[in-house]
Write a structure and sequence with these properties.
Two copies of one chain form a homodimer. Chain A is mostly helical. The first copy, chain A, is 70% helix and 0% strand. The termini of chain A are far apart. Chains A and B meet through α6, α8 and α9 of A and α6, α8 and α9 of B. The structure holds a DNA duplex.
Chain lengths: 233, 233
Amino acid sequence: MFADFFTLRWRNSANSCLLNDVSHISGVRQAQKQQSRRALMDAGLRLLEHQNLSSLGMREVTREAGMSPAGFYRHFRDLAELGVALVEESLASLHAMIRSALAEQGDAEARIDRTVEVIAGHVRDHRAHVRFLARERHGGVQPVREAIAAELRRFAEEVAGALGAQPVSEGWSPEDVRMLAELYVDHMVSTAAAFLDAGSEGSDESESERRIARTARTQLRLIGVGRVHWLDS
Amino acid sequence: MFADFFTLRWRNSANSCLLNDVSHISGVRQAQKQQSRRALMDAGLRLLEHQNLSSLGMREVTREAGMSPAGFYRHFRDLAELGVALVEESLASLHAMIRSALAEQGDAEARIDRTVEVIAGHVRDHRAHVRFLARERHGGVQPVREAIAAELRRFAEEVAGALGAQPVSEGWSPEDVRMLAELYVDHMVSTAAAFLDAGSEGSDESESERRIARTARTQLRLIGVGRVHWLDS
DNA sequence: CACTTGGGATGACAAGTGTTCGCTGACTTC
DNA sequence: GAAGTCAGCGAACACTTGTCATCCCAAGTG
């Protein structure tokens, strides 16, 4: 069904992935395989809403995905490998969020409002991904933890770049810009996590969500005030 | 079969603690029991350095503690109950840290320095506890998660009280003091977590530790600048 | 068209799990 | 010192788990 697309797409790609090497066959076959892979990842993501990666069983995942236990090995060597795949996916969507937060225009106040809105929207739309990241950021699976930490560092660099270009940051040392970026990223993560368990704790969801948004905005405003008075201190 | 005992035991006591009610016997007996309880908790804490609570097995714990599987039930109903006990312990030590951070004297600069030092020292001395909190804060075991969240809220209140008493906060609305307190607590947690995996990633531990301390200090200073200029904005 | 390829299903394996049971022997109380 | 209490033990239970050799059959190939 996607045959032409996939062959076109994959034929001349120097494929490094051991499993899921799919470059030499083509057509319905790998479309199905990719579909099974997606089914496994979705099943995993669904199960991970109520537990964490290291307590997940592969039988559990295959059962949820409607597949036999052995089928798992055709796609992933490990559950850790599935975890890393999920990290990549989750971080891609998070990256998109950060970009759109950075791209905001207007005065400081409007940018803050839009940023917090973007975060809230992202948590609403990608709840499973965000929860997964929050859980596994300090979780028990080392490669997953490292992947998340590395990507968050890259985000901080990106934010630092954007902040450095703003007129408010004139005269700042690179280290100071960097620490400001880290502060923003940490705050973003904290806020996202707060939105997360505001939605899942039941009782008056939208009210506590508004409360979190208000707090986050005020905090960002405070940091902003610190920024404009940073050099005269 | 234990009918008579239990009815006698429970009938006229407004007893809230089912297990580990130890008030009526005395001497060597309960000292031994408490010792076993400690052994279980220590074993759990040791095992939790490389995995999270929901993937922990009780057989695993009892084995590590040098005890038979059935012995576990004399102390905890669940692994979740063990988890909650560990939360209480961990939060007690964290509470002590926060108090001593709040009690700092001197000008703002000196207080920031000492605060960051206190955090670093606490992570060094209670690594297992801190890691446990970081892991289970967003982990898969609901009661544990809630216990941590509730206590962190209480900490924020305490910090808010202390901040409100400072002369810098004159004219602030209670909500703003509160959001500032939350910002501080979040920052404290983030910093502690950063110290944590600075120590465990190997390569030049004390250098990256210093880097984190420097960043944290600068961030606190920035927030402080925001504080003093908050009202004129 | 026959023929190869390779996802997926099946069934079995050992090893591990949570939980319950009755028992023992050291402590406590009368 | 006899009777009562109960923390911890070892065995047994009914599972679930990861892994593998094996077979099946639709998709791809010449």
